[in-house]
Specification:
The complex is a heterodimer of chains A (78) and B (460).
Chain A (H helix, E strand, L loop, with lengths): L1 E4 L4 E4 L15 E2 L4 E7 L2 E6 L4 E6 L5 E3 L4 E6 L1
Antiparallel strand pairs in A: 1-8, 2-4, 2-7, 3-6, 4-5, 6-8
Chain B lengths: L4 E4 L3 H13 L3 E7 L6 H5 L2 E6 L10 H10 L4 E3 L9 H9 L3 E2 L4 H8 L1 H10 L15 H11 L3 E5 L9 E3 L2 H19 L4 E5 L5 E10 L3 E13 L2 E7 L6 H17 L3 E11 L4 E8 L6 H8 L3 H9 L16 E8 L1 E2 L5 E2 L7 E2 L6 E5 L14 E9 L2 H14 L1 E2 L6 H9 L1 H5 L7 H6 L5 H4 L4
Parallel strand pairs in B: 1-2, 1-4, 2-3, 4-5
Antiparallel strand pairs in B: 6-7, 6-8, 9-10, 9-12, 10-11, 11-14, 12-13, 14-19, 15-16, 17-20, 18-19
Helix pairs in contact in B: 4-5, 7-8, 12-13
The chains are: A mainly beta (78), B alpha+beta (460).
């Protein structure tokens, strides 16, 4: 199990736009550097990237929820 | 004064500014805030405060039903929208008025009209305010394009009449180039939009951004001189001045006269700003849009005129006449404002919503800092990055730049990266000192590496 943490405080989004599907779903392969979500901070959108490879398990933080820096956003299984 | 209880539907530094102006007028202040803003300075300073929703602006500062309900519940008789958020929402004005309260700003109809680019351009033309000269509608074929261009003057911009968003825009410097470009542009427009019609307007390639502050009471209107805001990054102003040193007296007089003509023509009530592009080569100015609200950079105008713009807009909203006539509005010295944002200019302006650890605000003759910080304050990440503004006033522009440097060196916002290093570097830039810049200047200057840790002596 590996956690993906938020690099910044802000609002976390699972999708690039409301019309698009979430970046990742359970069972998806995740490569190092893959974008798994967006953090909106001060009207700027910052991509959240996986720091290690793995298999996507689940989003931990809800879509469009407020998160703190270091909050766990999603988990991977090895 | 019809206003006794003012509801402030905004946050940040402008909320503090409005609370203070209203209290000085003897008005009871009610500050709206989101769940994330309970600790902000305006909440502490206002006579009372009320939560209007969750952290997200859509749930709070943009939530018309929640704001109107909160204003009604707290028995407000007027609502001040600040800038941004709902300040230019005609729907908000109507909701406030339907609830029996006064909106501090122009009428919903004026906001609708001036918010529509085409309608605003028509209103400007009708009032004799110059707009960017262009073809009246679409142009077919190269010969017609040349005819229009000869009338409006080169260089010209050629766009697809059916297009939008800057696609397929070309610039022709002279007739030969236009004869070559026009058929290509028509062909491209045909391919892209199924419509080969073109639109031609004068290209103002390196314009300066100049704007005029106006005040109106619904009948009379005055101007409070001009500001220059040409230093912009991603279309955001970063450094603003009053007045515009590049203007000669004749151009200044004509610019300000035209702004008052438009304000009177639309029976403007409140504080407003007419924005223009200024072509320094030809000394021509062109109206581009009107902002029907108080602006971030209003303090530079207050510094040179001595007029409290926020107090004045509250008074006229309460039904009073303008408190000053045109000949009572002086233009003294020079003022500069820089925006202090929670961004790291040495890391591509990355937002930095930190916790303030040690705060020193510069003070002194001709130094003003509008902000909403306090020591220990956790800056919320949910809103824009503007923390405040450092404003200086001096007899001359040179002296103002010197004073700005001193003020910026004295400002300490511990624990947070801010745009202070950018402003210190700009204050030292020879082009800025010489006033030799335009709206397209700052980004290439940054891209050329003029702002580095070495050039600024490191981050704060």
């Amino acid at each position: 199990m590996a956690d993906i943490q938020s690099p910044l405080p802000g609002t976390f989004y699972h999708q690039a736009t409301p019309e698009e599907p979430p970046y990742k779903a359970k069972g998806d392969a995740v490569a190092e550097g893959d974008v798994i979500g967006l953090i909106e901070v001060m009207k700027t959108f910052i991509e959240v990237k996986a720091e290690a490879a793995g298999t996507f398990d689940a989003y931990v933080a809800d879509n469009a929820s407020a998160v703190t820096a270091g909050a766990v956003l999603a988990t991977l299984v090895d | 004064m019809a206003i006794r209880r003012l509801f402030i539907a905004n946050r940040g530094e402008i909320a503090v500014r409005i609370v203070r102006a209203a209290r000085a007028l003897g008005i009871h202040t009610i500050q709206a805030h989101s769940e994330a803003d309970t600790e902000m300075l305006a909440v502490r300073e206002a006579d009372e405060a009320i939560c209007v929703g969750k952290a997200s602006a859509a749930d709070s500062y943009l939530n018309i039903p929640a704001l109107v309900e909160a204003a009604r519940k707290t028995e407000a008789d007027a609502v001040h929208p600040g800038y941004g958020f709902l300040s230019e929402s005609a729907a908000f004005v109507r909701a406030v008025e339907e609830a029996g309260m006064i909106f501090v700003g122009p009428s919903a109809d004026t906001i609708d009209r001036m918010g529509d680019k085409v309608a605003a351009r028509e209103a400007a033309e009708a009032a004799g305010v110059p707009v960017v000269p262009g073809s009246d509608g679409r142009v077919e074929g190269a010969a017609a394009a040349v005819e229009v261009a000869t009338r409006i003057g080169y260089p010209v911009m050629v766009k697809a009449a059916a297009g939008g968003g800057g696609r397929g825009i070309r610039v022709a410097q002279d007739e030969a180039e236009l004869r070559k470009l026009a058929p290509q542009a028509a062909q491209e427009a045909e391919a892209a939009f199924g419509d080969g019609g073109l639109y031609i307007e004068r290209a103002i390639l390196s314009p300066r951004h100049i704007e005029v502050q106006i005040l109106g009471d619904g009948t009379d209107a005055v101007h409070c001189w001009e500001r220059e805001c040409s230093l912009q990054r991603r279309r955001q102003k970063v450094w603003e001045e009053a007045g515009a040193a590049c203007l000669d007296e004749a151009a200044r007089a004509e610019l300000c006269r035209s702004a008052v003509a438009l304000a009177k023509a639309v029976q403007y009530r409140g504080a407003g700003t007419l924005e223009y592009l200024y072509d320094q080569k030809t000394k021509e100015f062109f109206f581009i849009e009107m902002n029907t609200r108080i602006q971030v950079e209003h303090p530079v105008t207050e510094m040179i005129t001595g007029i409290d713009l926020v107090a004045e807009m509250i008074r006229v909203a309460g039904g009073e006449k303008l408190s000053v006539t045109q000949d009572q509005i002086p233009r003294n010295g020079h003022a500069i404002e820089v925006r202090i944002n929670a961004e790291d200019p040495l890391n591509n302006f990355m937002p930095f919503p930190g916790k303030v650890d040690g705060l020193t605000i510069p003070e002194g003759e001709g130094v003003r800092v509008d902000h909403f910080l306090s020591d220990g304050y956790q800056i919320p990440p949910f809103y824009d990055s503007l923390l405040g503004k450092v404003i200086v006033h001096a007899k001359t522009r040179d002296a103002a730049i010197d004073k700005l440097k001193q003020a910026l060196e004295a400002l300490k916002v511990g624990g947070v990266r801010t745009t202070v290093p950018l402003h210190l570097a700009l204050a030292d830039a020879p082009e800025v000192r010489a006033g030799d810049f335009h709206t397209q200047w700052l980004e290439p200057w940054l891209a050329a590496g003029n702002l580095t840790a070495d050039s600024t002596g490191g981050t704060q």
